[in-house]
Amino acid sequence: MTPTLVRHHPSAASARTGTRARDWAEIQERMLVPLYEAVYERLEVGAATRLLGLGCGAGLALLVAASRGAHVTGVDADPQFAAHARERLDGGAPGGAPGPVVCGGPADAADGAPYNLVTAFAPIGCAAGDADGLSPALAEAVPLVGRGAPVVLTGWGPPERCATSAVLRVAARLTDAPRSSGPGGWRPALRDDLEDVASRSGLKPDGSGRVACPFGYGDMDSAVRGLMSTGLFDAAARATDPAQVEKELVEALHPHLRPDGTVWMSNVFRYLIARKP
User: Which residues form the Methyltransferase type domain (predicted)?
Assistant: First the structure.
């Protein structure tokens, strides 16, 4: 599946240095914690929850659910991210029941079925092809849950509510093809992205919400590393080179640089609760 802010296949810069997964785990993944917590609170995730996390990344969302007592299983196509998630969960969580983290797709976690909650915390709607990339994973995951079980899809909010959108346009400018730049290329989020994916997967929408997820970084270097770890600049790095992308990122981030050297951008993300009929 297209992993998880949106993660895609490793960028050229991070693939060379081997830091991509670490940058995601240490810098970027925590930006989405308000989204995880809002979804878990709404669905009353707890000891009765058997959760399957699609594109689980470095496992922070799984750890938050396990801390609420849920039994969690994660899948991710990237072995480096899956390894980070295993390491996190091996440490355990108070009251939780961590399950396995599988490097692969949902079908590889079929032994843990049935699940009663599926989450796809890779926000779609800002990368060409990300919605299409999620559909095959959902096709594998939906049979692993019972009728009426919730499947949570997440996405970027309206561009005017996401300060990071202006920064992400760097990817479009460098590829000169915002909607046809292939996997990882930026494109504006659309209002019905989540509903369209749910419909194609045979799921019925049953509620949605918006959550503020500001992106805050200790310095400019952390901001660049964090954003590069998302995969949203992969196509731009292929079209030019990673050094050029990082240079343009610094310029785009400058309006968000505070006097104390920190970088701050307000954002809103959406989630959709859909159910298996």
Answer: 52-90
